[in-house]
Amino acid sequence: MTQIPLTHILFVSTALFFIGMYGLFTRRNMITMLMSVELILNSVNINFVAFNRYLYPEKLEGVFFSLFIVAIAAAEAAVAIAIIINLYRNLHTIDVEEADEMKF
Amino acid sequence: MSASAVVFYILSTFILVAGLLAVTSRKIFRSAIWLLFSLTGIAGLYFWLQMEFIAAVQIIVYVGGIVVLIIFSIFLTQQSGKEMPPPFRSRAIFSALAVCTGFALTCILLRNYTFPAGGHAAPDTGVANIGSQLLSTTEHGYVLPFEVISILLLAAMIACIVIALKTKPGDK
Question: Is residue A1 part of a domain?
């Protein structure tokens, strides 16, 4: 594991972050946008774990931050999907360009 | 190149290719499956970093929870065989341009920054150690964030029920 420099792991997580960003910019379906957000959150998690493992291997701070991010991501996904399904029941679409009314 | 390095490069290629397919695939169900592969690859990367607990959490919560939730909502909201409309050409070009610029900029920054060398002490990432530090009230304890996050999860659960109970204004 020590033959790989830390920068290579950071390159991977940066690439994953910008892949998620590209999806967030180009997709118009709400569920696929949610998937892009999950990719972005995962790239942040990789960063935390890699920093913990390489720079401060005697501590566990990065692991705790990753655990809390995972918990928040789970809560966020649940609420987002509840909102999306409610929007679908009311507007019969989950396209962000067509769902332009706040109150129904 | 040692076997460990080969494993790392294979894992990262797998993660990035699956992630790229997840954001560009035109069929939404395939997109969800590619996302599943990408998240599994990230769990493999955690195993490669010898962080077994966080890898297990990744598999249980993301692969077993969030992706299944996403697949359920895909079945509830649309026909999964139908292709989604392609993104607007101008928007796709400009976002690809912006994303590539950002990636190049970050890579240059990373390349020029030298990280301080860490110690080589083997970390104690056993579940017992993680659990006792997560719930300890001493200096490096995380019991307050732990309680806050449990309240957040409770609030999210109640919020989901409240949103799901809402009816259309036309009904009854």
Answer: no
